[in-house]
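Q: I'm building a small set of examples for a reading group on sequence design. Run inverse folding on the following structure and report the sequence directly after it, with nothing in between.
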């Protein structure tokens, strides 16, 4: 829908630093277009003064003045030809977008347990019997219980935890539910309780 006289932000040019708003961006664009360096310098100093008044809480920072000039350089796409009171080399680093991080996409059979639990399953398969393995079994089983609760799959389904532990360790770990003691889980940790709280 295109209504004459209405100008939506979605139709406008994307702001470089949106926190300063469109009016500051327009001022900087105007400063870049001024014909003489003296005019650009005076205009830039005025703009930095306005930017300073917009965020007075930043004055507590040691290098806040330099940050303002860095932001001015970034918002002008480094086209503003003036004598900066500070070097704007840091601004070049700030303006550079970081490379996107690769997300580790390892497939796991049951997503609600998470990759770390499956790493523990692999470790348990090769661990020799003893107190260290017993402690790791206890920690793993209780974390499985928490994960089931958070995902709303039944935190107290102890048989399921015992079956999954045996299945994903290739039968190496078998827990006897008549002797095994699970930690008491705070109801606040359960996914059901979290969902109920959101409904209120």
């Amino acid at each position: 829908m295109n209504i004459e006289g209405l100008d939506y932000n979605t139709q406008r040019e994307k702001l470089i630093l949106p926190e300063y708003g469109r009016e500051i961006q327009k001022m900087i664009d105007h400063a870049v277009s001024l014909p003489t360096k003296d005019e650009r310098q005076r205009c830039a100093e005025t703009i930095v003064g306005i930017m300073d008044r917009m965020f007075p809480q930043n004055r507590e920072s040691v290098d806040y003045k330099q940050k303002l000039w860095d932001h001015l350089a970034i918002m002008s796409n480094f086209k503003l030809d003036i004598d900066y009171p500070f070097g704007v080399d840091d601004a070049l680093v700030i303006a550079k977008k970081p490379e996107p991080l690769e997300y580790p996409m390892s497939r796991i059979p049951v997503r609600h347990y998470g990759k770390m639990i499956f790493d523990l399953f692999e470790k348990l398969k090769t661990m020799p019997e003893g107190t260290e393995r017993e402690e790791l079994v206890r920690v793993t089983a209780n974390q499985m219980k928490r994960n089931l609760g958070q995902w709303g799959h039944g935190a107290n389904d102890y048989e399921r935890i015992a079956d999954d532990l045996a299945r994903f360790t290739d039968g190496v770990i078998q827990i006897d539910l008549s002797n095994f003691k699970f930690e008491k889980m705070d109801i606040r940790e359960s996914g059901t309780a979290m969902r109920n709280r959101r409904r209120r």
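The CA atoms of residues 48 and 72 lie 7 Å apart.
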